[in-house]
Design brief:
The chain is built from 15 helices and 23 strands. By secondary structure, it is α+β, with helices and mostly antiparallel strands. A hairpin with a 5-residue loop joins strand 15 and strand 16. The protein binds FE2/S2 (inorganic) cluster and fe (ii) ion (FE2). FE2/S2 (inorganic) cluster binds next to loops.
Amino acid sequence: MLREAIPDLSKFVEPDRVRKEVYTDQRIFELEMERIHEAMWIYCGHDSQVPKAGDYYTVQIGRQPMILVRGNDGKVQVLYNRCPHRGNMMCGDRSGNTGEFFRCSYHAWTFKHDGRLRSIPMDSAYAGTRFGKDNPDCSMKKAARVQNYRGFVFASLAKDGPTLKEFLGESRVAFDDMCDRAPKGEVEVVPNCFRVIQHSNWKIFLENQLDALHPSVVHQSTGRAAHNVEKAIAKKTGSAPLAYHMLSAFATVTIDKWDNFQTLNYPYGHCVLTGYMGLRPKDPDTIAYEKTLTKAYGKKRMEEILAVNIHHVLIYPGLSVQSPLQQLRAVRPLGVDRTLTEIWHFRLKGAPEAIYRRSLAYYNLVNSPATLINADDLENFWKCHQGLSSDGGDWVSFGRHFGRDIEKQGRVETGPNMGTSEAPMRGQMKAWAKYMGNGR
Ligand code: FES
Ligand SMILES: [Fe+2]
């Protein structure tokens, strides 16, 4: 129906520019939820968020409130957060443990962890009616598909479509890189996450994730201030803590240096940004960590693992992963101009505590809502949405290095010294148009 209300969606996206309505039109937003977020694989949470039977987290997939829950059988399920009786939301809290079963707070129907109806109080009242344990309409509905890649749980509300592995394709490197850096080969979540509501369309956040052009502009003042302190500490003590480098890099890695990086863009809209600021200093913590990794994997494999050169992986339409620092941001659209981001970080199992502190420092200094880096970005997101809602122009331009993308082996790469190309935005919008056109 919505499709008909928007007569020619293909006119909204051109290879190097996009109509502003793509960010501001309520009808397009509804269609996006239907065709993209409620159809594709969406990240729900990590295995380690729900370690015990009955542990649950509520999560939003498109417009649908869902529950991620660990069952008595150890399996993780994703259910609609809705009671089949009169529609009451089953879990009102963000997370918790539901005990042996779910119990609706309205009329006390109870459900097993996999959503199956367990009991109805005084159920003789329903004798001879359509209600009963055998009627699936009396159970909590499950997500059509739930799959897990190395502990990261995704759900799709569509019963057909690519498997999670096919969908992730090369972007699996985000989880492989993160987990391989752990001497035990897996990570565990550090509860809880930061939650930020941005007053802007969800795509503005995703576009910014691999926008290598913006950091040295937007975050320059923060970077400069940190660089001054870093220099003063180094002068006084002979070396500066790595945490300062995480911030000062925004000033010292100038636009021309960002051009040395590269983006690799994939058909489902995923994208990898290569290159990273030095994470292998010769400090005792790093050396101790390298020894632990060598013990677990051998020297050759340790070198391979630490040589993976990734800054950021964007998994369309709702996940941004910084694997070398074990950070992840999940994007949950709330409305055409409101977007929730959940900012999580992880611990490398088996790695020394100091390596975790490094991840925590990056989490707090760069990704948290308390840092100036985040505030800088949020201000631009809001301003972009305001400008796009105005009559000051009809198009958003993604023309930087347009026509110079290199297509090879099913992916689009940026050319040499074109790391700041707008290829990732072009790739995302190309995927968007495809999803919106045929729902997959
Ligand atoms: S709405 Fe859940 S038991 Fe009535
Ligand atoms: Fe930024």
